[in-house]
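The pair is quoted verbatim below.
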Amino acid sequence: MKIKTNPMVFITLLVFFLLSGNLFAAGGALDGVMAVTGLITVAVIFFIAWMVTVYSEMDDKSGDIFLKPLRAFNKYITNSTPIEKEHEILLDHEYDGIRELDNRVPPWFNFLFYGTILFSIIYLIQYHVIGSGNVQQDEYMAEVREANLQKEILLKTGALLDENSVKFVKDAGSLSNGKDIFLKNCASCHANDGGGLVGPNLTDKYWIHGGGIQNVFKTIKYGVPAKGMISWQTQLNPTQMQEVASYILTLEGTEPAAPKAPEGNIWEPEKEQPADGTKDS
């Protein structure tokens, strides 16, 4: 007695069976009854396909209790016509010497077809009637809400701030933080009152590298190495740079003790940009 199988078919089906659990889990929506139904379906497909690949050479009188039922089930599930009887199901037409057999649809295929109908009914009831599962739209909306929460966190930490998105902040807390940063890091070059020392006067309307929140933020972020001003992006986070840039803009029009002579050009904001009452961008 010999039992022979197609190794590649067996390996392929085994890999498919092992991966199927991960596929169902990754989908997220196939939980509860749907997951059990799906896994049972995959298991049945695997078992049937494996049995179809099995054939044996045995003596019918050997009385083997395993192979006889196996061969009977294999014959039933495939319902194939024996070669010696294929002439009975030949169709009349012929193409280049090729004749067509009028075979019936094999039962295993019908089982799969009816299984998909059963699966769809269970899915419809669970997800669209009972409503106990998460349909794709619900999963999508949940992910959108999570993304919005993450976005709010990033906005609060300033991770999304750059010279293109920065805005002037005028609340007392932000300006107070900006003043502290200015006195600690900028006063040595621009004086405590912004009148200018090594660096230019920040209280007049003249700007060397452009005024407004975006230009000032950019100057702070990247520095001016040619003039000895370092880049502060490694020492200050985006929110801190926004706060100190906003504070600097509030210095316009103040009267420093010893103002330095104007440098640069008078900067005027673009007409389409809204004014906020300070050195605006």
